[in-house]
Amino acid sequence: MKSMIAAGLAVLAAATVSMTAAVAETATTPEQDRVALQRLYAGMLPGVKPDDFVTGSVALDPALRTQWEDIMQFPPFTFAVDHGKDLFQQPLADGKHYADCFDNGGVGIRQTYPRFDEKTGQVVTLESAINACRVEHGDKPLAPYRGDLAAISAYMASTSEGKRFDVKVPDDPRALAAYEDGKRVFYARRGQLNFSCASCHVQLAGKHLRLQVVSPALGMVSQFPIYRSTWGEMGTLDRRFSECFEQVRAMPLPAQSEEYRNLEYFLTYMSNGLPVAGPGAQP
Amino acid sequence: MSLSMLRGGLLAALCVAVPTLAVVPAQAADFATVYAAAQAAQKQAVDTFCAWNVTDNALAEAKALHEKGDEDGALKAAQHAQALAKVSMQQCEEQKTLWKQAVVR
């Protein structure tokens, strides 16, 4: 009996040690995650210069690059940027302007979003900040995914072109929890196809899925909001998230839901150091 | 037509009709129960961000078949929807911990 108890205790101790090791193994910092992911892509796609990751699948396929260069001779997002600038400069319901809601009058700040708001304990994306500004000054929030919201976001992104992403995860357990939640959304499998974001954008990056070249997660956020030929118009990152969810046969989440905002937080942190290339266009 | 033939005919008609009458209400009741259970399971999946869009498709198919009077098809579609909703919840539950194994290190 004693030997059975001893054996049982030994198994319990071994299990405890292995569980502790497992917990320690998962407890990586955001910076360790970023370095690990950037190192992985450097190994997987050695021909791609680091800054070129911001062009997504265009950087991986010469034929696609040719199409993209043709498109960029007359960038299809130009109208959206102009329209977004007009909207940005119009007064809100109480006479205030968007510029009153943002640092530096909203110019050249795209690279610092998403941000963690210590007052609310939530991640704030550029689009959620635009809508929060509208509500604060007496206007209704804009519809997500496309249209005026994408246009204002496109204009604001255009004022940051070339600036390098510098998203912070402050020393606040709530910020780290939001980052970890975004990481979970990225790596958790979902939908009837049992795919995660990482299944495509890490494991299959640079490979073909039917006719499409799968873009790497690194730099993915840089071109948003983006004009996609398949949409025939501008769209926000939320729109792309929802499309991906549907493609793996999962139910998309509500626009600007906590999960989507946290996912954007994680993805943008992974792209820290890369230049803002938005608004962008994809063939 | 003789009386015995008439009796035989009535009996035969009853033999066919009674089981049919018995089966149709039972199927309708089964459909209502299974469909309601599938809807409840899908609502739980939606509320917890675990839902699959194909479950909604199966629920819509079940409803459409029921409205057309195809009770067998409706019941099968409702059962399929219920199974999909349950599996989506199971996937979500498993992924609460399994995702960590996929993290790039």
Mean pLDDT of chain B: 83
Fraction in helix of chain B:
over 70%
Question: What is the beta-strand fraction of chain B?
Answer: under 5%
Low-confidence stretches of chain B: 10-24
What is the CATH fold-level name of the largest domain in chain A?
Cytochrome Bc1 Complex, Chain D, domain 2
Oligomeric state of the chains in view: heterodimer
Count of alpha and pi helical runs of chain B: 3
Q: What is the count of DSSP helices of chain A, taking H or I runs of 4+ residues?
A: 10
For the record, the CATH architecture of the largest domain in chain A stands as Orthogonal Bundle
Radius of gyration of chain A: 21 Å
- How much of the sequence lies in strands of chain A comes to 5-15%
Give the topology string of chain A: H per helix, E per strand: HHHHEEHHHHEEEEHHE
Mean pLDDT of chain A: 91
SSE topology:
The complex is a heterodimer of chains A (283) and B (105).
Chain A: H1 2-26, H2 30-44, H3 62-73, H4 78-89, E1 115-117, E2 122-124, H5 126-136, H6 147-158, H7 173-187, H8 197-201, E3 208-209, E4 212-213, E5 226-228, E6 233-235, H9 237-247, H10 258-270, E7 280-282
Parallel strand pairs in A: 5-7
Antiparallel strand pairs in A: 1-2, 3-4, 5-6
Chain B: H1 3-47, H2 53-68, H3 71-98
